[in-house]
Amino acid sequence: MPKKPPLSRTEIDNGIKTVNDMVGEIAVASQLQTTGIEEINKGLAHINQIVQQNSAISEESASSSLELSTQSEGMRTMMSQFKFSSDGLDTVVGQQQAYEMSQPIVPRKTHQLEPKTSTAIGLSAVQASPINTAKNGSGKMIVLDDSDFGKY
Question: Could you tell me the strand order of the sheet in which 141-143 lies?
């Protein structure tokens, strides 16, 4: 086997310089990779935060929906105590079946005193309207006309 001639000092120096340059490039690439991984971690943390917020909002929405449903059932139960008649008057009755929502409510005008009589004693026509009693004798009546709507 033939022997290779020994390397000269300049060749060794050039080899060392090349290796140093490669190590420097590897260090720069590693730093870029580390920066990229940090950015990805920040992005994932932000996504996690948004997912947590969405989860909390969804839970609040479900809770609100359940509460609204419960209140709706309570309102339906309360409304089932009213009997809606075709003459526009609502009469409170005892425990009665729930009102069927398909039936229309037809309002009617109530009888009011003449303005001369009511204004003579300082009352408005709404304040002076006669107190009606329910036709079934329960004594409670709700008038559905809008004559006093402007007050509120």
Answer: 82-84, 89-92, 141-143
